[in-house]
Amino acid sequence: MDAGVFRLNHGSDVYVVRSCCNEDGADLLALGGEHSVEVFQINTTSLKRLATFHIGSRITALAWSPRSTSPTRSDDWIFEIAAASADFGLHLLTKKASDAESMFPFGGGLSGHHGKINDICFCGGRNEDIIRYVASVSDDKMLMVWDLNPTLDICSGVPSPVRSPRGDDSSSSSPLPRPQPTAYAIAFSHPLTTVNSHPSSSKEFLVSDCRGSVFVTDWRTDPEQTEQGSWRHSIVVELNESRALSDSLTATTSQWSGFAAWRRDSADIVGASYGPRFSIWDLSKLRGGKPLHTGTSFPEGGHSFRWCSTNPDYFAISAHSNTRGAVIHVHNVGYLQAQPSVINVAPRPHYIRDFDFVALHGQPVLAVAFGHQVAVFPLGDD
């Protein structure tokens, strides 16, 4: 399928854009707004709304469950999404072909995060754990791995609300309460910004902090069986962006942030954006944790870093401020010294809140959120 160039006026600010990378859900797109999560199907001319989940708080992160399937691939389709909200809550959102939308809240209170949840992802690997475990990272310096199907039955006490497709309560019913997910927490030294899993491993997460460090973390390691017996037990590899670390230590930057991502076709390749620079690491050539390649993207600071899921030679970085408008730079790993392709999505004062590569096969497609609008277009078509 080749997507055309089109825009959706959402009606309110869109903060999170997340494409479904599953082979059976490649045309699905989730948008996180001021108070809800909406699921859309991408076709050649438009976005078709398929489900709406009303959370009641601004969405800060989204992750598609690996079992999500599009209606174009199966009559027995299902959407399942983990969502984080601005009130530090987590929610498991489910919509099946034969059922209304279902929302299961978890992770709140004393057992959950106590800072903004910046990113969330399902477990990697290829066994049943990929739909059982969800990892979240927060400004509270914690990586938390949630078991959605715990053997310990701690009932949430709050039934999952179900919304009728017509928006009324005439056909709604409350499912039986399910056990409240349990969490395994790993503390870090600084606020955490992103977390990734990789299809090749069910025991590791890629975690980045705001100061210039990226960690490959083995969350299944038992600290009691290690000499340190502390959070350091779980760090398999630590990568460093030296300029970002230096700036944070000398306080030469007023805004600390970072965004790291695993390349889906290779567990050895990691990319990140810190300030005005991007970095590429090859874990098979560690070089003391220093990047294999570095470059400048936006002198005033970059933000989100995304690998293209269908053509892994491409990655893109969005601008962090509105001084240039809503702009994305697209890089090719084969020509890192060349100037990036510059995509001007919208003029000032717009800026990009989030973007993602759509998993549709063929020409790489971007979905970009700025203000109330979401633009979907193939690379090469502005």
From TrEMBL:
Entries under Gene3D superfamilies matching the protein: YVTN repeat-like/Quinoprotein amine dehydrogenase
GO cellular component, one term: nuclear pore outer ring
Biased composition regions of type Low complexity, renumbered to the chain: 159-175
Region Disordered: start-end pairs: 157-178
Name of this chain's protein: Uncharacterized protein
